[in-house]
Amino acid sequence: MNIAVIIAAAGASRRYSESGGLRSKLDEDLGGKPVLQRSVELFTKHDDVKFIVVAGPGDDADFAEFKSHHADRLGLLGAVIVKGGKEHRWQTVKAALEAIPKQNGDDAITHVAVHDAARPAAPTELIDRVFELARHHPAVVPGFEVGDTLKRISKSDAPARPSDPLAAILGASASEEKTIVIESTVDRAGLFAVQTPQTFEIGVIRAAYAQPDLSSTDDASLVEKLFASEGKGRKVVIAPGDSRNIKITRAGDLALARAIMGLRGPEERPAHKRF
Fold first, then answer.
1. According to CATH, what is the number of the domain 3-147+190-273?
2. Max CA distance (Å), the chain
3. pLDDT, tens digit, for every residue of 90-105?
4. Do residues 199 and 127 make contact, with C-beta atoms less than 8 angstroms apart?
5. In the chain, what are the domain boundaries?
6. Per-residue pLDDT for 70 more than 70?
7. What are phi and psi of 265, to 5 degrees?
8. 3-state secondary structure string, the chain?
9. What is the pTM of this model?
10. What confidence score (pLDDT) does residue 163 get?
11. How far apart are CA 212 and CA 227, in angstroms?
């Protein structure tokens, strides 16, 4: 089993910055290393991983800045950096797929694992579990049953907060934040929250990305679409996920990731051990 790992790192970190983050979440400090480096290091010592490609931002200027921050560190880990997509995640993964070497014989890549760059805390046992199941199934994703109550919502035209007359007099713009209202409760029976790394036979994921319609939420959804069109009864299999495998989405998630990984923040370390 020879695995190529794709680290999807082209996101704009919009929700992270909106929640108080001061820089890209992938640049944040996790025990003296950037989040991105921690995510790549999850795979560098795994015997089955033969190739790692990191797909960064699609914009030329953003990609140049991305490389200036990460190229040296990732190069020492043996990872290749390519330019990802500008708008959609599938563009990023497709660009990374094209960078995977096409070899024959014992060195040929047999599987591709796609991992979110903002998931630096994925436990080794989770990755091992997914990879082992991928030996026996063409498509495997980690996931677990949804435990929280789910609500379908909409945003009303009413502002979330009462308008401030004094602010209006002083020329301040009205708040654009809208009130979120509940429309219905979603039946969570049979619903799973899925994580990464999502792992596929290389022929399967290449075929999935050769489909004409690549609109999707994740790689597994493209494979689901492919399997449905084949009509052969193939299915994506779920491996038991892990609650520690959080995705850093908002600023508060960084502290949680540090706690899970047993790492101190930069303010808790001597100055010479910060970056």
1. 3.90.550.10
2. 74
3. 999 999 999 999 888 8
4. no
5. 3-147+190-273, 150-186
6. yes
7. -70, 165
8. CCEEEEEECCCCCHHHHHCCCCCCHHHCEECCEEHHHHHHHHHHCCCCEEEEEEEECCCHHHHHHHHHHHHHHHHHCCCEEEECCCCCHHHHHHHHHHHCCCCCHHHCCCEEEEEECCCCCCCHHHHHHHHHHHCCCCEEEEEEECCCCEEEEEEEEEECCCCCHHHHHCCCCCCCCEEEEEEEEECCCCCEEECCCEEEEHHHHHHHCCCCCCCCCCHHHHHHHHHHHHCCCCCCEEEECCCCCCCCCCHHHHHHHHHHHCCCCHHHCCHHHCC
9. 0.86
10. 56
11. 14
Are residues 50 and 80 in contact, defined by beta-carbon separation less than 8 angstroms?
no
- For residue 11, give both structure tokens: 């996101």
Q: Give residues with Cβ within 8 angstroms of 24, minimum separation 6.
A: 13, 16
Residue 77 and residue 255: Cα distance in Å, rounded?
Answer: 25
- Measure the CA–CA gap between 81 and 131, rounded to whole angstroms: 23
Type of residue at 213:
D
